[in-house]
Amino acid sequence: MIPERPSTCQRLTAGGRISRQAYDEALRRRVQIADDLLRLFDHHDVLICPTTPITAPKRGQTTADVGERTIEVGQALVAYTAPWSVTGAPALAVPVSCDPHGLPTSIQILGRPGDEIGVLNTGLVIER
Prior knowledge:
The protein is of the alpha+beta class. It has 5 helices and 5 strands, in the order ααβββααββα. The chain has helices at about 10-15, 20-40, 75-80, 80-85, 115-125; strands spanning about 45-50, 65, 70, 90-100, 105-110. The strands form 2 sheets. It has a 3-stranded antiparallel sheet. A two-stranded antiparallel sheet has the order 2-3. The radius of gyration is 17 Å and the shape is flat. It is an enzyme of class 3 (hydrolase). Pfam families: Amidase.
């Protein structure tokens, strides 16, 4: 049985309860994250990072241990990718191996905004 998830309507309603102050702070942080990321590309063509802090969860698994914390699986699966979604930087996940249990692992390649070709070319090199 697939666990129930909040409906789109419930998520939108919850988003509507975010205060103006919290929203403005999130916008400020987004600019700060994007600026920090852009500075990294002064010295690097791409960045290579883990895609997730966990391997593929088991069917029906709702929590995962990440370091010393237990968090929701959904939160763990986007923990390392969501920050880049707000920066305009292209990102690509590439499978690289399997863990000791045979579950797939991957890395993500991040590039300078507008450099999708560089990210894809790096992905091709890694895949080979």
